[in-house]
Design goal:
Strand order of the largest sheet: 3-2-1-4-5-6-11
Helix content: 40-55%
Order of helices and strands: EHEEHEHEHEEHEEEHEEHEHHHHH
CATH class of one domain: Alpha Beta
Radius of gyration: 21 Å
CATH architecture of one domain: 3-Layer(aba) Sandwich
CATH superfamily of one domain: NAD(P)-binding Rossmann-like Domain
Number of strands: 13
Length: 341
């Protein structure tokens, strides 16, 4: 029987954290969740109020240890991911917040697991697609802090996290849902991508199972890529799935065309963008901002299959089923089908 383990988890109510909590509990791991004000809605979880933006999270670590005993692992999944935030806001939340989490782990003599992003990887993107990187650069800097200062660290790098593989459910819609919504509702004039570019999606339940398994690993200084890798989906295939889904819901509008982002950057934006209505300009700019995430020319590294073998995790689910299930959930939550009636 596995020995008991206690983790201090940040970001417990976020997309990753909310999927992770039940997976940790399934493995017999006690969860102490750091929350800002609202406790985690699971009676099996102990919530403590704190703030990642201040040193020590504002916690009394001696009192924490006296109350819960040894904290074996700090899992830091809290992060600011919104594209609209400033570089300073990203730095304070993602870099300084990680520094504070590392310090806590060291003071507790606990292992440290950092939930980063696969997009810290060198994507070999052209210059016009590199302006997106305020978020990604903050995660790169946070990783550097982890490697430099944590005594015992593990870094987990997921690709684009989407909803549950079977139900599509997710605690809050992400950037991909915004893109799908814009396309399916006819708000996107075009899709800034190359047809053969790759879109790497990992369901939140798959990611959570991998993190929960790694929470028990004692190995030091390891990096894991939880991605599709070479099995990532082509942009053209996602485009076709959106078209099929839209038609199944009763819509007959044509899908926007896939247009090379370089054409958009060099021709459309300087020549045609100024003449568009403000709402259309905002939508196109938002699509271009997200373009780096679905324009991979090379696959990410991936460790998931090896972890699945080692920890008896389920195989990565079928790409097409995951995408359709996520679109179905999005449609149910937004009333998309009803609007076609």
């Amino acid at each position: 029987m596995e020995t008991s383990l206690t983790v201090l988890l940040t970001g417990a109510t976020g997309v990753v954290g909310s999927a992770l909590v039940p997976r940790l509990i399934e493995r017999g791991i006690r969860v102490v969740a750091l929350t800002r004000s609202t406790p985690v809605a699971d009676e099996r979880v102990v919530s403590v109020e704190g703030d990642i933006s201040v040193p020590g999270f504002g916690l009394d670590l001696a009192a924490l240890a006296q109350r819960f005993g040894r904290i074996d692992c700090v899992i830091h999944s809290a992060a600011l991911t919104h594209f609209g935030k400033s570089e300073d806001q990203m730095h304070r939340a993602n870099v300084l917040g990680t520094q504070h989490a590392v310090t806590i782990a060291n003071e507790l003599d606990a292992r440290f697991m950092y939930i980063s992003t696969a997009y810290t990887h060198d994507l070999k993107l052209p210059a016009y697609l590199k302006e997106y990187s305020t978020y990604c650069e903050s995660k790169r800097r946070a990783e550097a802090q982890v490697k430099a200062h944590a005594r015992d660290w593990t870094i987990v790098r997921p690709s684009i996290v989407v909803g549950d593989s079977a139900t599509g459910a997710i605690s809050r819609f992400q950037g991909l849902h915004a893109i799908v919504g814009a396309v399916l509702q006819g708000y996107a004039p075009m899709i800034p991508a190359k047809e053969d570019a790759l879109v790497d999606l990992v369901p939140q339940d798959v990611l959570a199972q991998a993190i929960a398994a790694l929470a028990r690993r004692n190995g030091r200084h390891r990096e894991y890529w939880i991605t599709r890798g070479r099995a990532a989906t082509r942009v053209a295939d996602v485009h076709q799935l959106m078209d099929r889904f839209s038609q199944s819901c009763g819509y007959t509008r044509a899908m926007p065309k896939i247009v090379d982002p370089e054409v958009i950057d060099r021709l459309f934006i300087p020549v045609f963008l100024p003449s568009l209505p403000e709402s259309a300009r905002r939508r196109l700019n938002a699509l271009v901002d997200h373009a780096c995430y679905f324009n991979l020319s090379e696959p990410f590294p991936s460790n998931y299959d090896d972890l699945a073998d080692e920890f008896s995790l389920p195989a990565m689910p079928d790409n097409e089923a995951v995408i359709l299930n996520n679109m179905t959930y999005w449609a149910a939550q937004t009333g998309y089908r009803e609007r076609a009636a």
